Amino acid sequence: MEIYNTLNKKIETFTPNEENTVRMYTCGPTVYHYAHIGNLRTYISEDILEKGLEYLGYNVLRVMNVTDVGHLENDSDDGEDKMEKSAKREHKSVYEIAEFYERAFFEDCAKLNIRKPRIVERATKHIDTYIKIIEKLLDTGYAYISNGNVYFDVSKANGYYKLSGKNPDDLKIGVRETVEEDKSKKNPYDFGLWFTVSKFSNQEMKWDSPWGVGYPGWHIECSGISYKFLGEHLDIHCGGVDNIFPHHTNEIAQSEAFLGHKWCNYWVHGEHLNDSTGKMSKSKGDFLTIGTLESKGYSPLAYRFYCLSSHYRNQLTFTYEGLDEAQKTYNKLKNRIKKLDRTPNLHESKIDFYQNKFKQAISNDLNTSSMLTVLYDVLKDKELTDFTKLYLIEDFDKVLSLDLTIEEENKINEETESMILKKIEERNEAKKNKDFATADRIRNELFDEGIRLIDSREGTTYEII
Ligand code: AMP
Ligand code: ZN
């Protein structure tokens, strides 16, 4: 498989440390609010990566954390604790907030057919591991204590700027602009490993430690959980591009200082989903969730289809027009598959050919739109029996996870029903005006989406086909 590695800024041939087994870590959700559809785009890409690797024959050991610990905006302890803020807003404890939004996250994932990683671990469950790592970092001189807090000394790290590819001077400007300088640090990029001195004095989440009662910094959980469940060598680490700096940069610094060797070979980052105002962001407050899309009559899997139509390394600007198009194309595709004859009649001659094409699309830096093209090629191939097409589509759907061969009940929601009634009215109007071309177009468009209009003397009704 060829995959773009952020660490070396190029597409590389993927070779895991252990033959056939891939150790993969993905940064999980921060559970102080619902995941927005941008976050979910990243999880869809990671799901495709995991399933794509499996399709290629690897056994994937995948671990994900859930950030349920009071999450600071930045390292200098002057950000806002989003968990505490949500708890106040919703009159709940921080633990209740974390539990509620963690469940909501996995419900959204299930709707999008994103498989839950084999191991999912809450950050608050592994404080002992973070303490063990921090103790070693202090012993070996990578960390220092200042004003009650423990910081990582970035000047001691090897190749600190390698992942981000930034130069220290650019970062200096970035840091100064966004972060109120923490006077306890030796230099501005040093980051907190453990805080005992905090402006959040009545923080609900705190633990005892050799340095006093406090809480971990916001990078150590991923190093700790990954080390605990995947060991000293990681094959792939994923996340969205915003994680490259500082989060992943700091993960590398502390993990490699702790382990004493290179930690992870491939860093895979998903580009962002933007809205018309720019990057979609949880802290902006006003963001789109899967629930929002559902309430407007879209199916979650049409959103998955929308994401798969673009490459994970390209930015994608979300528009409802784009999603409308995706929903239509997805419905049409499902409808076309539904009409295939299911009588068993498998022709094996071209199965390998198409499976290899599909593997090539996966291996080409996870080219999801090429994967879909292979699927359309199968549908178009006149030499294949319907049953063989279904066999291949089901096989590809192990990766695409679009429920392509699953027939839903003929149930529609209110939103779709009012859309159909509106179309019927438009068609009646067109017929009244003798605009039969428009009338036919409307009928055909609905038919393509699996809705057949039935004209009778009493008027027009419809059925789901
Ligand atoms: P969070 O829950 O905010 O920690 O983010 C969860 C994941 O979503 C991380 O991997 C982020 O890098 C990613 N992410 C955040 N914003 C976006 C966005 N607008 N588009 C795509 N991925 C995002
Ligand atoms: Zn992480």
Poorly predicted ranges (pLDDT <50, ≥5 residues)? 173-179
The CATH topology name of the largest domain reads Rossmann fold
Q: Please give the CATH architecture of the largest domain.
A: 3-Layer(aba) Sandwich
CATH superfamily of the largest domain: HUPs
User: What does the largest sheet look like?
Assistant: 5 strands, parallel
How many domains make up the coordinates? Answer: 3
Helix content: 40-55%
Bound compounds? adenosine monophosphate, zinc ion
Q: Could you say which structural class the secondary elements and strand pairing correspond to? A: alpha/beta
Dominant shape: globular
Radius of gyration: 26 Å
CATH class of the largest domain: Alpha Beta
Termini gap: 40 Å
What's the tally of helices? Answer: 15
Fraction of residues in β-strands: 15-25%
Global mean pLDDT? 91
| Widest β-sheet, arrangement of strands | 5-4-3-10-11
The beta-strand count equals: 16
